[in-house]
Amino acid sequence: MDIIQKAAKKIAGAKPSLKPLLGETHLKGSFKEKANKHVVPRHEEAAVSKRIKLPLQMLQQEGYLTPDGLTSRLSDEYRTIKRPLLDNIFGKKAKQVNNVNLIMVTSSVAGEGKTYTALNLAMSIAMEQDKSVMLVDADTVKASATKLLGVESSTLGLTTLLDKPETAFSEVMLRTDIENLTFLPAGEPHERSNELFASSIMADLLKELSQRYADRIIIFDSPPLLQTTEASVLASRVGQVVFVVAAESTLEGAVVEAIHQLGDDKIIGCVLNKYKKKLGDSSSYAYGYGYGYGVTDTK
User: Fold this and answer.
1) 200: closest CA among 1, 54, 36?
2) How does pLDDT run across 118-142, given as a tens digit for each residue?
């Protein structure tokens, strides 16, 4: 857990001198015209969202949390991970942090388990009696969550909402066979995904998600912070960040550099993934976790 402790110390320390993040992008051509025409409220939904059946058996076999595994060690670990996040949303900090119900799950580089963590966290929250959760595949290049849940890459999704702002939520949001869980796919890859993420349309979308679904937790499976600029843009607009660190492989310098890209107006938690333990079987391992919260109060 040493790297988690170092990350927690870094988060809880003095506010870092951050490099400027991408702000509102001045777009040219047709995309700018689309942004200016963004006048139709997205709540004018004309149809019921499509429902999909999740590949729960496959997910369970691959080591993911499912409704059939609620008594497992993994389930207990994610109960511990989700509790502070929910307390921040529905407790005293709810009025202190903007967009506190928007949670970004990210890492410094690829392969650390951010998609694994995002999906398990969404599953765990969906098991709450009075909570609903939307999982958003915001890694529009890899679209790992979209593929994992068996959704075709051509399915309308996040990039559709950003590129065609007149699109209603009901056209892209997928209901699942888990009652409290909905899914927003990545959408088709877009050559200007960075501009889409940095646009005012994205800012409006996130604001609407946060305010319109104030009683819903929105979890974003984000790209890695050090490998894309989209992640930094998204980080600047969410209220909470779950930062995933791979045990025994993530470099300390990468953790520090990635955390430098996060703003000081949000809550940051660290999760140690792939933490090996001997459980009587040399081939088995458990997932460790740790939270290091930094600046949590806004003046």
Assistant:
1) 36
2) 999 999 999 998 899 999 999 999 9
- What are the residue ranges spanned by the domains of the chain? 2-11+25-273
Query: What is the secondary structure of 253-279 as a DSSP string?
Result: HHHHHHHHTS-SSSEEEEEEES----S
Name which residue leads in pLDDT, 284 or 70.
Answer: 70
pTM (predicted TM-score): 0.80
Instruction: Encode pLDDT of 206-253 as tens digits.
Output: 998 888 877 899 999 999 999 888 899 999 999 999 999 988 787 888
| pLDDT tens, residue by residue, 149-203 | 999 989 999 999 999 989 998 899 999 999 999 999 999 988 788 899 999 999 9
Distance (Å, rounded) from C-alpha 111 to C-alpha 250? 10
Interior/surface letters 177-191, b for 16+ CB within 10 angstroms, e for the rest:
ebebbbbbbbbbebe
Q: Are strands 102-107 and 181-184 parallel, antiparallel or unpaired?
A: unpaired
Domain 2-11+25-273 maps to which CATH number in 1.10.10.1590, 3.30.70.3270, 3.30.70.260, 3.40.50.300? Answer: 3.40.50.300
Residue type for position 133: V
Structure tokens belonging to residue 241? 């960040």
Structure tokens at 275: 């933490």
Output DSSP code: residue 164.
Answer: S
Contacts of 103 (CB under 8 A, 6+ apart): 85, 121, 217, 218, 219, 220, 238, 239, 240, 241, 242
